[in-house]
Specification:
The structure is a homodimer.
Chain A: H1 15-43, H2 49-75, H3 80-84, H4 88-97, H5 103-125, H6 130-140, H7 148-159, H8 162-188, H9 190-197, H10 207-227
Chain lengths: ~230, ~230
């Protein structure tokens, strides 16, 4: 029998799947609100009003993503904040380990984070029931505010080549921290991992498929770094 | 002849009026983006995720107000950031003088500031050409996220009556600073004040009308303080 990365998704009638989806929505919702918060913080380092506004536009987009995820949790009869709260430590750790030390690091983080989140949303969408999938893909479609970052980073490297080396290391650290936090979240949460990995009655990715997903995420990250003019 | 507060508005063909409207839009746009920024800052003091999100929703609404004003400046053929920049010191001074020392002061500032801005938008709308008036009234209509503040402040006063006295003083200081900055802006900018006050060829408010406007703004502020359970 040929293996396929994508198998028929479960439904919300399945209690384990439902718990896993709630955890996923809580994770994504917390991720969006904490990205919004951190972008607002980084906006303060902007060299001028125009760049401050670009970052504020990204923060606003993240807030609207959060709203969609929160509204779905409410529709599902859940207290969104109760569902989100367990993921606070994950994002506190991530942001604590990746606080930008200047404006350029903030820009790279915004760009890399935005891209990685979009890729991850796209990857997991295939394993979700149709309603959740539509929500996840809709949420994703709102990003794309971060293209101005490419110009800003390339210009900064043109002006001082040492900047490129420092930001390349920074980009690698961001990706490393994101993967390490992702791994910890999945390891801690059985239902959530079941949504992705599958269980006895719940089809999902097999280990080879997970490996391929990580390869795709890493390759897409490398492509983004390249676009910024940074060694991946 | 009977005097009226509202006289026929000027048009953008009039260069002094045009300059005044550009200044007004720049002032409002800077006010919105700086409110957005300060709310994002205050959100960090939120006692829980739910309240953080309420404040972030207000910040997001201010950002969308900013976008409308910026887009109009672009439509008018202006660099919005160049038009806004001169008002940076006004808002730096205002926010510098009114940095909340805790979450409750942040809430009162958000509520009082949101209300005062809405009142001011409504007051000036009457003196503007129809296009600008529609924009200003549209921008205004997006507010109203701050009603949750009433519950939070009244509850805090119930728990500790001394809080009421402190926040009442704080509210008075906010209004005093807002009026003092408003007065400085108008005094520094002839074209802007001409839009409101009128000139030889530009009808506007007479001094009695300005007095009445300040009375209305002050009364509305007092009513808001009262709604919060604070002595005006």
């Amino acid at each position: 029998m040929a293996t396929s990365d994508v198998q028929p998704p479960s439904t919300m009638d399945d209690p384990v799947y439902r718990t896993g989806v709630l955890e996923l929505l809580g994770l994504l919702a917390y991720g969006e609100i904490s990205a919004c918060e951190r972008l607002a913080e980084d906006a303060k380092m902007a060299p001028d009003l125009k760049h401050k506004v670009e970052i504020a536009a990204m923060a606003t987009a993240e807030f609207h993503h959060f709203e969609k995820l929160r509204d779905r949790l409410v529709e599902l009869g859940e207290d969104p904040f109760a569902v989100m709260q367990p993921f606070a430590p994950t994002f506190e750790r991530f942001h604590g380990q990746t606080t930008p030390s200047d404006w350029l690091e903030g820009l790279v983080k915004a760009y890399v984070g935005d891209g990685l989140a979009a890729d991850f949303y796209r990857e997991i969408a295939a394993y979700l029931d149709p309603d959740t999938r539509t929500l996840v893909l809709d949420t994703l479609s709102g990003t794309g505010h971060s293209e101005f970052v490419v110009d800003a980073i390339r210009q900064a490297i043109d002006e001082d080549h040492r900047v490129g080396g420092r930001l390349a290391l920074w980009g690698r650290r961001l990706m490393g921290e994101a993967l390490s936090q992702a791994q910890m979240v999945v390891a801690e949460r059985d239902a959530l991992s079941t949504v992705l990995v599958g269980g006895v009655d719940h089809p999902g990715m097999d280990l080879a498929a997970i490996g391929r997903m990580f390869t795709r995420l890493t390759e897409a990250h490398a492509a983004r770094m390249d676009k910024l003019g940074l060694a991946p």
